[in-house]
Amino acid sequence: MLHAQTSAADRRVALREALAASLGAGGGLLRFPGAFNPLSARLIQELGFEGIYVSGAVLSADLGLPDIGLTTLTEVAGRADAIARVSDLPAIVDADTGFGEPMNVARTIQILEDAGLAGCHLEDQVNPKRCGHLDGKTVVPTQEMVRRIRAAVTARRDPNFVICARTDARAIEGLDAALDRAKAYVDAGADMIFPEAMADLDEFAAVRGAVDVPILANMTEFGTSELFTTTQLASVGMNVVIYPVTLLRLAMGAVEDGLRRIRDEGTQTGLVERMQTRSRLYEVLDYAAYNVFDADVFTYRLPD
Known about the structure:
47% of the residues lie in helices and 11% in strands. By secondary structure, the protein is an alpha/beta fold. It has 2 domains: 8-245, TIM Barrel, CATH 3.20.20.60; 252-297, no CATH class. The two termini are 31 Å apart.
């Protein structure tokens, strides 16, 4: 009922422990679907996933904007806060390039900590950034990204807040450059590496061979990487997989189809069987618990 039953600090500890376990013998792959709103975050928890991802591309699209660095720290933190606070799962948010220079990055980390996130990732693109699976992106020099990471590490107050470094260098400078950057980012204090737009499993395996920290794989549809299974990703040593835009795409596909049906048929009758029922919605919201709570604390009744 209401918000998560665990504290943000406890969720950060849980993420740290899960990442450590994923590096050990027989460690499992952590699955983080992208929540496009708090309600979808509740479903992610209910259906047994290990964490929640908050995508910058999804947040931009939800605002009717392309993913080109137009969103602000306030917008990202506010939406991420709303999503993180309803689930007991750890949530990781896309913090783009940190919303400015190293001092801005430092503030970003503290704002996201205050918003209840368990971690975030920062990328080495030039600001304004571009979608990692599209052409036209540019990366900053390695040392500039190192300064971003150091600012983030210095600023965080909770050592369990996970700072993930994303490199987009593969598509621009090649795999070897991406591996060199990954090593430099780990040396700067990054807790996890996010190699964007890998071409195949061998490239993911090369990243695994280059660093000894957890690695995040991005399984976004319509992108550069093939949609590998969790078994395939685990086999090359990946620790976390995100599905950043999947739920939004599913939802918006259904919304568009529904609107066309209403427009063309003049009724939503043919769509009802595809809808989440009212009873199922109330179940996800834990509506019954609110009724019990209200009955227990209600202290005034009108006289008969």
